[in-house]
């Protein structure tokens, strides 16, 4: 890898356990106007904490639909200390409200989504309105407002989806990857970040296991003893978005190299004294997760700390990444949680859980 790119990307810049922090490279948000949709969610709060700690943007706009969560966030980030904070009540389903909120914005982080698999299965039209039509609204508003860069958050469930949530996020990924063609000469650039389950976020399994153990549960419910998942902390996720915002050339999907483990092993680390009760896989769940499907291998290049899925029709982006030191992945390659070479042992899980607790919700 050429020194220019090697100096920008740290292969394992995290703890002694090898957990990456994704802090290099990093977009400079100083004196920028940044808007985050879904800004009061788990990721949004972690992102706001990081920006407030490390940068002095001209404005940091939290766009979300929950006034109570915005009020709570304003108490945590008081205006006298963080005068750049702004709060905008709105829903990504409302195209006109998005256009108003994005006036003068430089960067958009799109984190708003309906994320729970069972919720999406039982409320399919609501899921489509937020995750698919909302994505279209974000793209159109960004182009109209002259936004420079947009990074949209995706999920491992968007790769070879078997549930509506994953299918809706795959559609959103396609919308953002195609958006640059619609942007024309506006200069707007769009990319996607796709990563796995977030330790410490609302609705994730680790807090559930901790709560059950604290409440005196007799056992922990496990869907299947073979089930594996990718894991990332909120802080890692926020860092990865900032690094992708800096690296992006447009229309690509960034996939971080993150560890995976069996869900049963995670339960054993969280509550080693409790036995497991196997309850079966829920509708719409997979046994293992994939973030780079085999069919995308021909469009994927590898960097030290991430994979980049490139649009198949744009050879110049591939050439640009290869010139900077990226390597094409092998034919038939896939990045799956059960075949991930970075499998966490008990010590690694403990380190990741500690990191998640420090930066969690």
> Which CATH class?
Alpha Beta
Number of helices: 12
Mean pLDDT, all residues? 91
Overall outline = globular
Beta-strand portion reads 15-25%
Strand segment tally = 17
Helix-strand category = alpha/beta
According to CATH, what is the topology?
A: Rossmann fold
Question: Number of folding domains?
Answer: 1
Order of helices and strands: HEHEHEHEHHEHEEHEEHEEHEEEEHEEH
**Which spans have pLDDT < 50 for at least 5 consecutive residues?**
1-16
As a whole number of angstroms, the C-alpha radius of gyration is 20 Å
Helix content: 25-40%
N/C terminus separation = 37 Å
Strand order of the largest sheet: 3-2-1-4-5-6-10-15-14-16
- CATH homology group: NAD(P)-binding Rossmann-like Domain
- Proper CATH architecture: 3-Layer(aba) Sandwich
Largest sheet: 10 strands, mixed
Explain the overall architecture.
The chain has one domain (3-196, 232-258, 292-342): NAD(P)-binding Rossmann-like Domain (Rossmann fold, 3-Layer(aba) Sandwich), CATH 3.40.50. Helices cover 38% and strands 18% of the residues. It is of the alpha/beta class. Residues 1-16 have low confidence and may be disordered. The chain is globular. It starts with a helix and ends with a helix. It has a ten-stranded mixed sheet, with helices on both faces. The chain has a three-stranded mixed sheet with strand order 7-9-11. The chain has twelve helices and 17 strands.
């Amino acid at each position: 890898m050429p020194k220019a790119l090697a100096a920008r990307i740290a292969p394992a810049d995290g703890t002694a356990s090898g957990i990456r922090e994704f802090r290099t490279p990093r977009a400079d948000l100083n004196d920028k106007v940044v808007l985050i949709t879904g800004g009061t969610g788990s990721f949004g709060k972690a992102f706001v904490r990081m920006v407030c700690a490390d940068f002095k943007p001209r404005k940091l706009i939290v766009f979300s639909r929950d006034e109570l969560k915005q009020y709570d966030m304003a108490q945590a980030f008081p205006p006298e200390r963080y005068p750049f904070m702004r709060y905008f009540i709105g829903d990504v389903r409302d195209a006109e409200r998005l256009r108003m909120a994005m006036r003068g914005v430089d960067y958009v982080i799109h984190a708003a989504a309906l994320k729970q698999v069972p919720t999406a299965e039982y409320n399919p039209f609501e899921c489509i309105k937020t995750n698919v039509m909302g994505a279209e609204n974000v793209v159109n508003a960004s182009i109209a407002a002259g936004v420079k860069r947009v990074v949209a958050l995706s999920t491992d469930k968007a790769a070879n989806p078997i549930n509506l949530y994953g299918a809706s996020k795959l559609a959103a990924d396609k919308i953002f990857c195609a958006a640059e063609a619609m942007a024309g000469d506006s200069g707007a650039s769009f990319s996607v970040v796709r990563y796995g389950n977030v330790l410490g976020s609302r609705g994730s399994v680790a807090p559930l296991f901790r709560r059950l153990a604290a409440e005196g549960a007799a056992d922990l419910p496990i869907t299947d003893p073979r089930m594996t998942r990718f894991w990332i902390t909120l802080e890692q996720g926020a860092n990865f978005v900032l690094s992708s915002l800096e690296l992006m050339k447009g229309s690509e999907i960034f996939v971080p190299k993150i560890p995976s483990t069996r869900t049963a092993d995670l339960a054993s680390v969280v509550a080693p004294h409790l036995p497991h009760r196997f309850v079966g896989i829920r509708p719409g769940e997979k046994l293992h997760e994939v973030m780079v499907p085999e069919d995308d291998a021909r469009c994927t290049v590898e960097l030290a700390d991430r994979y980049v899925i490139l649009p198949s029709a744009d050879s110049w982006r591939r050439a640009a990444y290869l010139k900077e030191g990226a390597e094409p992945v092998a034919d038939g390659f896939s990045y799956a949680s059960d075949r991930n070479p970075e499998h966490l042992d008990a010590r690694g899980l403990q380190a990741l859980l500690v990191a998640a607790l420090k930066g969690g919700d």
